[in-house]
Write a structure and sequence with these properties.
four-stranded parallel β-sheet; globular; 298 residues; binds phosphoric acid mono(formamide)ester; Rossmann fold; 2 domains; five-stranded parallel β-sheet; binds norvaline; alpha/beta
């Protein structure tokens, strides 16, 4: 997320809005992108593959099981192969370090499609959704409730870049990255609140955001996590009613109704989760056009 400036983000949003109104051509006609996913995905794979095809490009989906990585080929050599055949790589990995190694050895653009530390494409789309639903990013306040995970880390960085107040409520042992908190404190000052109290976090929030309590890769600590998070960190109607009037509910999906969120909230009138998912595609298409310097052709 921190590779982007406020200017970049605003530019991506402008292109994404135009793409959403079907103003796109076949700018990626001569481009082939590989998707290398170590973990499952529904939205990220669908939104990238569909979006790239709309723009005339092609995709090759690879995973860690059916590539030679499963038989011990090094990540460095695998990265060198990506560079020889495709124009860009979209990777979903367990360890963030894997992305950094790929980016070091493959001299092509590498997009983070989720790692243990961050989920920047998600958050870029989420900020676009907030702007779309609320008309502007100014005067918003985001409350993130639950696990200080990859989505939370990217959301913090996104708020830092765009200057949006954010309050995060997690159990003390599941706070977001300390490094990111320290990076943001001088930027957001008292508009950054890290607390253990969901009710404090949602006060005056125009957006209430949550994510799963057990992320991909965290399965071994499932029992410990559920007992730390439930019932205090579940987003329910009572918590929503303590946010600002007209607040929206967001979730990156997949959701576990009855765990991080009550069904009546995610399926209720304040929820924007399915528009949020659709916007992944529009925003990622804009990101690709910007990344390949194809904006002037729009
Ligand atoms: N939100 C998100 O990244 O969903 P997937 O895991 O289905 O790609
Ligand atoms: N935090 C979740 C996000 C899934 C899109 C995970 O990493 O599993």
């Amino acid at each position: 997320m921190s590779d982007l400036t406020k200017h970049d983000v605003n530019e991506i949003f402008t292109i994404a809005s135009r793409l959403k109104m079907n103003k796109y051509g076949r700018q990626l006609e001569d481009k082939v992108l590989a998707l290398f996913f170590e973990k499952p995905s529904t939205r990220t794979r669908l939104s990238f593959e569909a979006g790239i095809r709309h723009l005339g490009g092609s995709t090759i989906y690879l995973d860690a099981v059916t590539t030679q990585i499963s038989r011990g080929e090094s990540l460095e050599d695998t990265a060198r192969m990506f560079e020889r055949f495709v124009d860009g790589l979209i990777a979903r990995v367990y360890k963030h370090q894997t992305l950094e190694t790929i980016a070091k050895y493959a001299r092509i653009p590498v997009i983070n499609a989720l790692s243990d530390k961050e989920h920047p494409c998600q958050v870029l789309s989420d900020l676009f959704t907030i702007k779309e639903k609320k008309g502007r990013l100014e005067d918003q306040k985001i409350a993130f409730i639950g696990d200080g995970n990859n989505v939370c880390n990217s959301l913090l960085l996104g708020c830092g870049i765009m200057g949006i107040p954010i309050s995060v409520a997690t159990p003390p042992e599941f706070r977001p990255s300390q490094k990111i908190i320290e990076l943001l404190q001088p930027v957001l000052k008292d508009q950054l609140v890290i607390t253990s109290e969901p009710e404090q976090a949602v006060r005056d929030a125009s957006v209430v955001y949550t994510d799963v309590f057990v992320s991909m890769g965290d399965e071994a600590t499932k029992e410990k996590r559920l007992s730390a998070f439930l019932p205090k960190y579940q987003v329910n109607q009572k918590l929503m009613s303590q946010a600002r009037n007209g607040a929206i509910f967001m979730h990156c999906l997949p959701a576990h109704r009855g765990e991080e969120v009550q069904a009546e909230v995610i399926d209720g009138s304040q929820s924007v989760v399915f528009d949020q998912a659709e916007n992944r595609m529009h925003v990622q298409k804009a990101l690709l056009l910007k990344m390949f310097n194809l904006i002037s052709y729009l």
